[in-house]
Amino acid sequence: MRVQKHSIPNFFNFDKRSVLLLALLTLGTAAAVRAQTAPGAAIPPNRATPQDLEAAFKRADLNQDGKLSRQEAERFPAVAQRFEQIDSNHDSFISFDEFSRAANS
Description:
By secondary structure, the chain is mainly α. Helices cover 55% and strands 4% of the residues.
């Protein structure tokens, strides 16, 4: 009877590189998340031009009535989350002026 030897491939070098890469990616991701959520971190100013804002508003205004409904505002998660604050006249719609003021505040 012949005994067969089973060889186990040497994955040590591959695994060490993989673990190192995973650790570096995890640290990089954690640093990015921390930078975005750090208490007291300054929010960078909006660099969108008035033309950018108008184009974004028009793309979101699906029925082209010159205002964003709550459903249309869902295209901008930050706007949807603050819908009541942005809708300063409380008419259940966001006008371009309200949208623009919110973007610049």
